[in-house]
């Protein structure tokens, strides 16, 4: 009879062709474990341990699944009892096949693997990339530095103040500022505080004059060394940059005046705040007027204050004149 005819591929002597292993999520878990190991090398050893456990576990499960056929373990599909079902309508079969093929399991696992791979790549890549790029857009924070009582700074005299930006035993973070007490400006004390960083390439500048005996002062933020001096100006030994006592450039390659520090007087003590850049200083001492800008790196120009247009822009976007 027709129903008893053997169909191609269903005969007892037909050789079964090897089939691909079924899709599995074990490679995804293995990739997550490897990613955790790499991330843990940056964050900490507990994450490395967790990643190593996941990597070993999912690698074992993956290998076990991949070698199932070679170990002679029958597939669940072969163990299932074959049940003859009535032949459905051809249109209904086509509709069901279309629904099944619309988004099969293999494609779901492929998309999941790619998505998790992209997420893992972002987790591993974005933190170091952010640490490399963020400083260019975020201003560096400067801690307040206590330089000691006001009586350590005689009026009209420069004092070289050397201090650490953070409390540590080494001098890697050692900074120097040239401080002059200008007396009173109205009802407030006035100080000229120049950064020793040359605005050409960042070399340390030196006062052009004799220095007195240094004294060490213990403050709330660490030890500060104060050395009196009477400079006629400041010079950079690296490339010949020269400045006057107000920090204005007088010779050499510097592109602007010396940077300065904002300051505050708290409980009769002089406290350094954040630094800022200066294009030009008009006048001297307590009467000086300064065109100030947010801190720039060495070698960077600031707008020319002699331009009327730039003066207006500075009034809108930059610091005003600082007395």
User: What is the general shape?
Assistant: elongated
pLDDT averaged over residues: 75
Order of helices and strands: HHHHHEEEEEEEEEEEEEHE
Look at the structure and give the CATH class of the largest domain.
Answer: Mainly Beta
Note poorly predicted spans: 1-6, 8-15, 167-171, 305-323
CATH architecture of the largest domain: 3-layer Sandwich
* CATH level 4 superfamily of the largest domain: Rieske [2Fe-2S] iron-sulphur domain
| Biggest sheet descriptor | 5 strands, antiparallel
Tally of domains = 2
Beta-strand proportion? 25-35%
Number of strands: 14
Reported by name, the CATH topology of the largest domain is Rieske Iron-sulfur Protein
Q: What would you report as the Rg, rounded to the nearest angstrom?
A: 37 Å
Secondary structure: helix percent: 25-40%
Give the N-terminus to C-terminus distance in angstroms: 111 Å
User: Which structural class is indicated by helix and strand composition?
Assistant: alpha+beta
Which key phrases capture this entry?
323 residues; alpha+beta; Rieske Iron-sulfur Protein; 5-stranded antiparallel sheet; 6 helices; 14 strands
Detailed description of the structure:
With 323 residues, this protein is an alpha+beta fold. It folds into 2 domains: 20-75 and 89-136, no CATH class; 145-322, Rieske Iron-sulfur Protein, CATH 2.102.10.10. It is built from 6 helices and 14 strands. It has helices spanning 26-43, 45-66, 76-79, 90-102, 105-133, 308-317, and strands at 145-149, 158-164, 174-185, 188-195, 206-207, 215-219, 222-229, 234-235, 242-243, 249-251, 260-266, 269-282, 289-293, 321-322. The strands form 3 sheets. Strands 1, 11, 12, 13 and 14 form a 5-stranded antiparallel beta sheet that branches. The termini are far apart.
């Amino acid at each position: 009879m027709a129903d008893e005819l053997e169909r191609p591929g269903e005969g007892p002597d037909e050789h079964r062709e090897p089939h691909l292993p079924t899709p599995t999520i074990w490679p995804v878990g293995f990739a997550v474990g490897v990613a955790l190991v790499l991330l843990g090398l940056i964050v900490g050893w507990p994450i490395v341990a967790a990643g190593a456990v996941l990597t070993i576990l999912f690698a074992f499960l993956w290998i076990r699944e991949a070698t199932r056929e070679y170990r002679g373990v029958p597939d669940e599909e072969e163990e299932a009892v074959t049940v003859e079902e009535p032949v459905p309508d051809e249109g209904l079969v086509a509709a069901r096949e279309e629904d099944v093929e619309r988004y099969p399991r293999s494609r779901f696992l492929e998309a999941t693997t790619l998505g998790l791979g992209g997420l893992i790549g972002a987790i591993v890549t974005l933190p170091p990339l952010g640490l490399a790029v963020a400083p260019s857009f975020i201003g560096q924070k400067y801690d307040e530095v206590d330089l000691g009582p006001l009586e350590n700074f005689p009026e009209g005299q420069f004092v070289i103040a050397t201090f650490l930006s953070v409390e540590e035993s080494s001098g890697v973070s050692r900074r120097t500022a040239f401080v002059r007490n200008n007396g009173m400006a109205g009802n407030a004390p006035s100080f000229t505080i120049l950064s020793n960083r040359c605005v050409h390439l960042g070399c340390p500048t030196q006062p052009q004059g004799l220095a007195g005996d240094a004294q060490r002062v213990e403050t709330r933020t660490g030890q500060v060394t104060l050395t009196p001096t009477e400079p006629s100006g400041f010079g950079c030994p690296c490339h010949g940059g020269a400045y006057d006592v107000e920090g204005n450039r007088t010779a050499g390659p510097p592109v602007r005046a010396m940077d300065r520090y904002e300051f505050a007087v708290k409980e009769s003590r002089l406290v350094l705040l954040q630094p800022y850049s200066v294009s030009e200083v008009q006048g001297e001492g307590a009467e000086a007027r300064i065109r100030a800008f947010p801190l720039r790196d060495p070698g960077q120009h600031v707008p020319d204050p002699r331009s009327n247009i730039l003066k207006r822009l500075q009034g809108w976007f930059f610091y005003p004149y600082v007395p």
